[in-house]
Amino acid sequence: xxxxxxxxxECAKYNQLKEIMVNAICISDIFDISIRDGVAGCSFGEPSIxxxxxxxxxxxxxxxxxxxxxxxxxxxxxxALWFEExxxxxxxxxxxx
Length: 97
Known about the structure:
By secondary structure, the protein is of the alpha+beta class. It is 22% helix and 41% strand. The chain has one domain. The chain has one helix at 76-96; strands at residues 17-27, 30-36, 39-44, 48-59, 67-68, 71-72. A two-stranded antiparallel ribbon has the order 1-4. It is elongated and about 65 Å long.
């Protein structure tokens, strides 16, 4: 296993990759509840996500959707392949420089 760093090919910012899911059940613990003017305000803990399907991965800064040859990256296996393709592309650019 190796760690990778996401750098957006569109905006060049890094470490802000988001996983967008559909049909997911998200469960959060509520720690504090305060009532103000008849409205409850809540403090939440880290959510637990059950079920659901990955729709796509995107840059958290610019919204760039990850794709491999125009196919949307929508599962962890494709995400690993996307990072491998980026690594190979970077090596080819270094070799031609």
